Each structure stands twice: as structure tokens, then as C-alpha cells.
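fyi for ur records
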Amino acid sequence: MHNRRLWFLLLALIACTLGYLALGARGNWAFVLPFRGNKLAALLLVAVAVSTATVLFQTITQNRILTPAIMGFDALYVLILTVMIYVAGAQVFVQVSQIGAFALNTVLMMGGALALFGTLMLRTGGDLMRMLLTGIIFGALFRAGTGFLQRMIDPNEYSVVQVASYARFARVDAALLAVAGGVTCIALIAAWRMRHRLDILALGPDAATNLGEDPRRGMFQALVIIAVLVSVSTALVGPLAFLGLLVVSLAHLLTPTASHQVLLPSAALVSGITLVGGQFLLERVLHLTTPLVVVIDVVGGVVFLILLLRGRHR
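which gave:
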């Protein structure tokens, strides 16, 4: 049954992809296809990276509500970006090559992500409320530091921070996309090779130990993969607060299973359909200029509240 649903999701993604590439295309196809194809590749890359990172994070936290973005990663990204512009200046930041800026952002966010998520995991001991409150406190601290620095920088530099703080798919450099794709593929291969171990880690530390799996070692390896995926996707296009929560919740609904061999591709396909199909509907069908991230954040926020309230009633 799950295989049939995965094939159905794959066909739906192919339909969204073909519609996005072909519908409304006029003029020279030699220009249209590379232009749309570059944007499509960015959408698919971010979709797979965010969904995989969210699945892994929810597995090691043993909770379907928490995601890296909810735990303060987006606020950490904006803080790092603001500090970079405050220290170096907007002119230096703009003049740095896109690949250089991407590499610096990725390295800094990987270090910050490992420190943030590792602290949350080790300090809270799996307590959902403590973990959630700690993540909220960290997020508030990051936003307070960001707000303080933004009040001290030049208004022109502040505008650079504002532009870079929102998710953007319109312009992604092809060379930068290739670098991000290579790093993401390595992390995805590592995650896929862990799929059976993730099934064991999802049972909890005690059960994992009894089955011969070192939970701390597995958790650390998963955290490294999560840090790589969320850092690359965020450095490439910007923060997406509720995408991971939305698509993984839909994946659990469409393919209700604990097997990561099914859940990982299911979440990736749902995420691809959400981004590519959503962009296709907004641009080609509805002809709207509303950014897709706004719609995703609104729907994802509602899903987060529903899951939180359902968890309270259980």
C-alpha cells in the first residue's frame, strides 16, 4: 500500500514539475527552460533538505511537533547575518562572491546548529515542555540580539539584512546551486544509509541500547546531518519557518508508518509537491505575486497549533 502511495506522490510531483516548466512558456525555449529549471532545482533541493532534516530531528527528539526552525534556527540565521553585516559592513558583504558568502554562512550555521540542538537535546533529557520552552527562550534571545544590532547599523545596511532575511527562490546562482546540491546529496546519502538505525533510535534510548545501537552516537550523527541540511538550505534561499512541520505532518498522514525507508521519500515527495505545486499555482494559475513562504508559514502555523492542542488533549 505504501509503495502505491509513493508512486502516486511521485506522479503528482512530475505533473507539478511539467506544469511549472511548460505552462505559460512563451518565446525562446532555450531561455525559458534554463531560467525556470534553475528555480525548479532550488525548490526541489530545499524541499528534500528541509523534509529530511525535519524527519531526522523528530526521530531523535521522539516528537512530531518539534522542528529545527521552531527550535530557533531561523532566528539564529538572522542573528549571524546581522552580526556579519554589523562587523564587516554591507558593502563588504555584497562584494563577497556568492559561493564565498554561502560557504561562510553554512559553516557558521553548522557550528551554531550543532551547539544549539546539542544543548537542547542534552540539557532537557527528552522533556517536551522543557525542550520547547528552551527553544523559545533561545529564539527570543537571538531575536533580541538581532534587534539590538539592527538599531545600531546604518539604515542602508539594515535594508540588506531585511532582504536577506526572507526566503527567496527567484534568483539562485547556478554555480552556487551546484555546490549546495553536492553537499546536500552527501548528507542525503548519509541519512538514507541510517534509515534502519533511525527506526531503532525512534524507539528510545533504552530500547536502542537493548537492540545494540549506541543512542548517543546515533543522535550525534543525526545532528550532524541535520545541521548540514538546514544550514545549506537556509544559506541558499533563506529561512522557511513551518515548511518542515507541514510536509512531515502530511507525510505521516498519507503514509502512516514508522519505517524511515518509507517516511523519508514520502516526506521528500510531499515537500517537493508543496513547493513546486504551490509556486506553480501562485505564478502560473492564480497569477499572484504573494510569496509562497507566506502561505506556507500561515498554513504551517495552523498545523502547529492543531498538533499542539491535540497533544494536550491526549
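Residues 38-307 form a domain with the ABC transporter involved in vitamin B12 uptake, BtuC fold (CATH 1.10.3470.10). thats all i got for now
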